[in-house]
Amino acid sequence: MFGVRLKPEKTTTLTALDLLSAQTAEASDLLARALNGQGNGSQNYLFQIKPITEECNAIVRQVAERLKHTFMSALDREDIYGLVMSLTGIVHGLDRFATRFDSYRPNHCSPEMIRVVGLIKQIIGELARAVPAIDRQKEIKTRLETISRIQRESNDICREAIGSLLRSHQRPTDVLMYKDLYEQLESIIERCGQVGSLVERISIKNA
């Protein structure tokens, strides 16, 4: 993987990254379902994100322990651990948003918020396909371009939504609530972009 010989741990590490990608995608899907189905079992979807976060934390601990005993350079171990931590960071961001959303219990979700959550689900799907393709330059370039495009679109929607919110005549408490939720979504988008940048750096280094 990544142009290095992982020897006995290669399959284990690949499996861990695949599992983290799948868990991240599942968490984003649950969040999308919760916002689209608000008032119709949405809390059940939100509650299911927490166990996924805990499972990802367990995977990180297992990978960290196994990397101590792999036959590769410290830099290669750093790349793999960075990917593991970055993917887990996205899940943590989704979990934080779900916790805030459940705590606030907003009366409605704006179309912009639902749209951004849908785009986050898309970008996570692209990341899940980009990680296994990290040693295929042509494919990874296409994936990264798509990730950047979705990231820009998501950020634009969040900025416009926050601007409209601040100009609205909603109650100050509602303005602060929705502003916080949008900022949480922006943080998730940023984390996704960081994973994309890390994938690109590793791909270039091992080209």
Overall radius of gyration: 18 Å
State the fourth-level CATH superfamily.
Phosphate transport system protein phou homolog 2, domain 2
**Could you give the count of β-strands?**
0
CATH architecture name: Up-down Bundle
Report how far apart the termini are: 12 Å
- Relative strand content: under 5%
Globally, the shape reads globular
Q: Which spans of ≥5 residues are poorly predicted at pLDDT below 50?
A: 1-11
- Please write the CATH class name: Mainly Alpha
| Proportion in helices | over 70%
Given the helix and strand composition, which structural class is it? Answer: mainly alpha
Write the H/E string, N to C: HHHHHHH
